[in-house]
Specification:
Length: about 325
């Protein structure tokens, strides 16, 4: 199959030289602002940006990047990422439109596209009475990002329910990886930092006939998370990994950093492991605040907090 590409440049960028088409309903755009596409609401533009809706379009996006010699960055819900103020060079592939859900009643298998929003999926499973994703209702990200990060809450994580993940390799080929292949650990998989994109995931859940009960448990988990974490201002979710046995939030709070602010970036009062954009914060201000928190916690506890949020771009 011969692939071609269609390029749409923004008014801020000069017209690019025509290159082979990608598909009429999957347009590669240049100089696309990324701040509105991240939960922090900060960051500069993408040199190139595309949102494939189908597997063939996703593979073609990889071909485009390889043809042009461009680095690739993946962007799901933008909830666990800090994009630099200067933006991102190369091709940013947005997975938010890779959406499909398939429930197999007999086996309890749930196959879902990487762009599905994890809380929405948790609610859908709960209303059907399927058990296994109640813990995921408050995690603000996509399925693909959750698989890569081994996202978790309430003592559960992706490794507990994942059967396999269909991924696109840097050469555009498809591979199917098991949890063992992913080498899962706490908030870790071997996909982190690699140009491998999760396209689809399959989970093992437990179908049942008590949707009211599963929905109630899911709702309780969501209310608990909502009452203890700040949802009123932009953030990336938890900034640091919990080092154990104490949580990162507890260590930051004991260091007296709740409410500490650099520019318009602030350590949240409600939960110290959250950094908030109080309006007009820059990525650099958020990064400097992250460094300050690490420095103060290390000074008091002789422990270096490791960021859970991913830094992308030139800082």
């Amino acid at each position: 199959m011969t692939l071609s590409y269609h390029i749409a440049s923004s008014e801020k960028m000069p017209q690019r030289q025509p290159i082979p088409l990608l598909g009429k309903d999957c347009v590669i755009k240049s100089n696309v602002p990324l701040a509105p596409l991240t939960s922090f609401r900060v960051g500069g533009p993408a040199e190139w940006y595309v949102t494939p809706k189908r597997l063939d379009q996703l593979q073609a996006s990889f071909q485009f990047a390889n043809y042009k010699g461009l680095p690739i960055t993946f962007l799901g819900a933008g909830s666990n990422i800090l994009v630099s103020d200067s933006g991102l060079s190369g091709l940013v592939i947005g997975s938010r439109y890779l959406r499909h859900i398939s429930f197999e009643q007999e086996t309890g298998l749930l196959s879902v596209g990487a762009g599905e929003f994890l809380p929405r999926l948790a609610w859908k499973a709960a209303r059907m009475g399927w058990q296994g994703l109640e813990w995921a209702v408050g995690i603000p990200g996509t399925v693909g990002g959750a698989v890569v990060m081994n996202a978790g809450a309430q003592g559960k994580c992706m490794a507990d329910v994942l059967v396999n993940a269909h991924v696109i390799l840097p050469n555009g080929e498809i591979d199917i990886l098991s949890p063992q292949d992913l080498e899962y650990n706490y908030r870790y998989s071997k996909l982190q930092g690699k140009s491998i994109l999760v396209a689809q995931a399959t989970f093992q859940l437990q179908p049942g006939e008590k949707p009211a009960l599963i929905t109630a448990i899911t709702s309780e988990n969501f209310q608990k998370r909502k009452s203890t974490q700040p949802y009123h201002l932009p953030s990336c979710g938890s900034v640091f990994r919990n080092p154990g046995p104490k949580t990162a939030g507890w260590l930051i709070e004991q260091a007296g950093l709740k409410g500490y602010q650099i520019g318009m970036a602030q350590v949240a009062h409600r939960h110290a492991n959250f950094i908030l954009n109080c309006g007009g914060a820059t990525a650099n201000e958020i990064l400097q605040l992250i460094y300050h928190v690490q420095e103060q916690v290390e000074k008091q506890w002789s422990l270096l907090l490791k960021p859970e949020v991913k830094f992308v771009g030139d800082f």
